[in-house]
Automatic annotation (TrEMBL):
<protein>
    <recommendedName>
        <fullName>GTP cyclohydrolase II domain-containing protein</fullName>
    </recommendedName>
</protein>
<keyword id="KW-0460">Magnesium</keyword>
<keyword id="KW-0456">Lyase</keyword>
<comment type="pathway">
    <text>Cofactor biosynthesis; riboflavin biosynthesis.</text>
</comment>
<dbReference type="InterPro" id="IPR032677">
    <property type="entry name" value="GTP_cyclohydro_II"/>
</dbReference>
<keyword id="KW-0464">Manganese</keyword>
<feature type="domain" description="GTP cyclohydrolase II">
    <location>
        <begin position="20"/>
        <end position="169"/>
    </location>
</feature>
<dbReference type="Pfam" id="PF00925">
    <property type="entry name" value="GTP_cyclohydro2"/>
</dbReference>
<keyword id="KW-0686">Riboflavin biosynthesis</keyword>
<dbReference type="InterPro" id="IPR036144">
    <property type="entry name" value="RibA-like_sf"/>
</dbReference>
């Protein structure tokens, strides 16, 4: 359940761009997600949407073992190109919900090739909670999305909870490009 919504703008200001902070109460835990809402949405409009899980190793420190920063950057470009859309940013999703310590341990044990975290289709490894994403979409009255990304766990969760995926735009990273 959403407890609090705070809205602000980014600097430099992009026309129609707003940043939202949603605070959720999940028992004693608070979860925050950030939304970039470039315009108002009309009923039944298919809204470009990215459910972005935090990845401090690539987004902040540039680690190339995963493509998370690249996917976030591409999603931002797509939303800007469309002129509207939503990107939710889930800070508590680091390491597929296991946290940074578990992720770093996996990096250490797997070395340079990090197959465990690259293979996003393995549901048994993924303990992230996507319920906050659904609540945010419903807050904006969005039920139809163009899902930006490849993750089947995210797609299946959204679909099972009433979000209609009208189109999916895959993000395929080529390390050599």
């Amino acid at each position: 359940m959403i407890n609090e919504v705070t809205k602000g703008s980014l600097f430099p200001v992009e026309e129609g761009a707003e940043l939202y902070n949603f605070k959720f109460n999940k028992g004693t835990e608070y979860v925050q997600a950030y939304v970039l809402n470039a315009n108002s949405f009309l009923d039944n409009t298919t809204v470009p949407y990215r459910l972005n899980s935090a990845c401090i190793t690539s987004e902040l420190f540039g680690d190339l073992r995963c493509d998370c920063k690249w996917q976030l950057d591409e999603a931002i470009k797509l939303v800007k190109k469309q002129g509207f859309g939503i990107i939710t940013y889930h800070a508590n999703h680091e390491g597929k919900g296991h946290g940074l310590s578990a992720k770093l341990s996996t990096f250490k044990s797997n070395g340079e090739v990090n197959a465990k975290y690259k293979n996003v289709g393995k549901n048994e490894e993924d303990v992230r909670d996507f319920s906050t994403a659904v609540e945010i979409l419903k807050y904006f009255g969005v039920t139809n999305v163009e899902l930006i990304g490849n993750n089947y766990s995210k797609k299946n969760y959204l679909t099972a909870h009433g979000i209609i995926i009208k189109h999916q735009t895959p993000l395929i990273y080529n390390l050599e490009s």
